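> @MW can you paste both from yesterday?
MW: sure, first one:
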Amino acid sequence: MASFLSIAAAAVVLAGSAVLPAPTSTLVARANSDCSEAAAAVVEKTGGQLLSAQPSGDSCVITVLVQGNGQRPRKVTMKVPM
């Protein structure tokens, strides 16, 4: 039968190996480096928050969340050349 200390040590090792950094918009831009400039331009133009940036042929499909004046935020999707 395993001792309490060996079980606790194994739990600490397993818990430490499962810790991952929180995802950020920077990670999205790095993962889709071909669309990062197009995404930055759309975010600047709309003043929204980047939700996704995906390559599609020779363009990028950019989705942002735009705040309304006293209204619910709306999702805006734009197809922009790379």
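MW: second:
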Amino acid sequence: MSKLRLDLHDVYNRGHDIDRALRGVIDEAVRIHATTVEIIPGKGSGQLKKHVLRFLAEDDVRPLYHRVEKDSRNWGRVFVHFRWK
């Protein structure tokens, strides 16, 4: 059971870098058959979290994972769950 973690605090104001980091972690999760990716957009204004959720909903990304879970105890965190056969 492998988990990956992506903290976006360092690239929060650079949209291109955010997309590159998100693509990289999702691609790595698929490559190693990770069970979960924890993405930390931080709490801030909520714009970065919205950006992350929009990225995850893109037509070429959505088929790669099973479900997204917004952490109910820490709204600055998103979990992406994968299911492998």
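> thanks! Strands lie at 3-7, 36-40, 67-70, 78-81.
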